[in-house]
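FAQ

Q: What does a record look like?
A: Structure on top, sequence underneath. For example:
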């Protein structure tokens, strides 16, 4: 444990400061495909009973019309967040009829590309912008890849905590409070890049996939059964080069060292033409097919395991929000859906993530060079494809070390952070979560990815059969726990309000969509970096 981490932990352990540890916020976004009773992609539109996918704050769609996304309110305790997520699931099931929510990160067996419907958000200019953006994703990456689901973990620390650290560290007092907070979040992101391979080992849950997913693409996977491909030691094929990948984005240089470089990288990417996309153009036969021919259409197209975020205002773009008001929270995007948990993530996992992310925030975090960035990317790639391989090594401080040895060292460094969190809230839930993860390092068979492969083999080696079995189990749980009258009334009111808001947006539509897109694109230039 570094001297800096020791000093910061001592400061936060002081009775007069400890309360700030409980002030941060946790939110979860869970993606999940709607499937029919046979486990095939649902052919129905987004249920109107759930409200408007454009304007509902908690129930929307991601890429496809059938890819639901549940968004919890931000809460101070991950236990409350997960209760809210559970309520969204139970309410949704009360409106889904015979359909179910797919239990896996990797998709069910998908229909032909042309039969995967892109999400529809109505005829308002903003609704069309979201739809055309997704048309662009189909052109650039294919529709199958966009049907992958994940868990996004939104995490912030109390601004009083940042102020306390700011006041206590003389070298940083020259920075404004806003600049200091942004710098510390970027330090957190850098440490996340160094150590996130550990999350893939501990929580990766996608070692196999439907053979139809690859659509004929070349691969080096092994055959588990007629309909299933896998890698025997993989933890998360979702996060490998078989999942989110793109040649256009491969040239984006490291940008974790400060807000300025991050914004500059994204600003360049949304304004830099890319020849293969230029050949396609933005329109075909008068119909929009993508928002631009640049490296990325909008900031959200940049695929990253973690993002700095700021709640955006109406009509504002993410780059603008970060420029003008700094980083407010981080979004962890590499977590697989846990197929053994009805809501896709366990409370125990959330407790560990809280300790891990606080460790990343408080530990020393020097700037990352290009070469170091390549090493961290390689460590991550090894872990997602071979994380459970006996004797697997990662690159650490110029040497090859075993994943297990480095993992145990990391847990030893995180443990005092977990203990501090337990002292703040009372009890031992964070220490208990740490113990469960330590057991996975001692025995790879305890990892979710190993458990998935055991269950797959018990289902005849079929990914489709295993996914359907787990989806049915989760559906039975949610259907046997319907929403309370109070919960149903709350979500009914949200659904009605969201539909009314979409109607109002469409009624107020002015100007052409072409002009709307032009204005939106022109708003991405950041004039106030800092």
């Amino acid at each position: 444990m570094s001297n800096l981490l020791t000093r910061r932990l001592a400061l936060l352990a002081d009775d007069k400061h400890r309360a700030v540890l409980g002030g941060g916020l946790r939110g979860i976004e869970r993606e999940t495909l709607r499937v029919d009773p046979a486990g095939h992609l649902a052919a129905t539109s987004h249920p109107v009973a759930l409200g408007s996918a454009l304007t509902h704050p908690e129930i929307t769609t991601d890429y496809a019309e059938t890819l639901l996304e549940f968004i919890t309110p931000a809460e101070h305790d991950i236990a409350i967040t997960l209760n809210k997520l559970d309520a969204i699931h139970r309410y949704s099931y009360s409106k889904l009829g015979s359909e179910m929510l797919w239990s896996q990160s990797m998709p069910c067996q998908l229909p032909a590309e042309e039969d995967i419907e892109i999400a529809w958000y109505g005829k308002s200019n903003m609704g069309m912008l979201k739809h055309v953006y997704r048309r662009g994703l189909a052109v650039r990456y294919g529709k199958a890849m966009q049907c992958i689901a994940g868990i996004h973990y939104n995490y912030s620390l109390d601004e009083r905590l940042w102020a306390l650290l700011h006041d206590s560290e003389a070298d940083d007092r020259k920075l404004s409070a806003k600049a200091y907070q942004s710098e510390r979040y970027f330090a957190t992101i850098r440490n996340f890049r160094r150590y996130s391979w550990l999350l893939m080992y501990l929580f990766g849950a996608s070692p196999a996939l439907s053979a139809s997913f690859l659509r004929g693409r070349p691969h080096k996977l092994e055959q588990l059964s007629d309909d299933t491909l896998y890698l025997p030691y993989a933890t998360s094929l979702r996060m490998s080069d078989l999942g989110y990948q793109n040649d256009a984005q491969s040239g984006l240089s490291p940008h974790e060292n400060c807000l300025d470089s991050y914004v500059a990288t994204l600003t360049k990417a949304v304004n830099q033409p890319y020849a293969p996309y230029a050949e396609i153009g933005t329109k075909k036969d008068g119909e929009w097919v993508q928002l631009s021919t640049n490296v990325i259409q909008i900031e959200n197209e940049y695929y990253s395991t973690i993002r700095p975020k700021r709640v955006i205002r109406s009509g504002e773009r993410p780059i603008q929000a970060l420029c003008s008001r700094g980083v407010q929270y981080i979004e962890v995007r590499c977590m697989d859906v846990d197929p053994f948990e009805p809501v896709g993530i366990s409370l125990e996992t959330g407790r560990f993530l809280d300790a891990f992310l606080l460790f990343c925030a408080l530990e020393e975090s020097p700037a990352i060079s290009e070469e170091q960035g390549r090493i961290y990317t390689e460590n991550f790639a090894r872990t997602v494809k071979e994380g459970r391989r006996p004797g697997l090594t990662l690159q650490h401080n110029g040497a090859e070390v075993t994943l297990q040895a480095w993992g145990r060292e990391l847990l030893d460094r995180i443990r005092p952070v977990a203990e501090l969190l337990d002292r703040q809230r009372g009890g031992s839930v964070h220490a208990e979560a740490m113990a469960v993860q330590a057991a996975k390092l001692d025995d790879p068979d305890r990892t979710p990815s190993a458990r998935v492969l055991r269950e797959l083999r018990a289902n005849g080696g079929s990914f489709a059969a295993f996914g359907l079995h787990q989806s049915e189990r989760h559906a039975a749980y949610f259907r046997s726990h319907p929403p309370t009258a109070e919960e149903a009334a709350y979500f009914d009111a949200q659904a009605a309000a969201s539909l009314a808001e979409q109607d109002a947006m469409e009624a107020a539509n002015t100007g052409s969509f072409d002009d709307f897109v032009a204005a939106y694109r022109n708003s991405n230039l950041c004039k106030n970096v800092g």
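Q: Is there anything notable about this one?
A: Residues 525-530 have pLDDT under 50 and may be disordered.
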